[in-house]
Amino acid sequence: MAWANGKKPDHWSTHRLLSTAARLDERRINRCLSGLGLTKASFDALDSVAETGPFTQSGLADQLGVTPQSLGKVLERLKELGLLTKERGSVDGRCRSIRLTQRGRSVLRTADELVRGIPRPDAAAEAELRRHLSRHIDHLMEGEDRARHA
Question: Of 27, 60, 105, 130, which alpha carbon lies 20 to 30 A from 115's?
Answer without folding.
Answer: 60
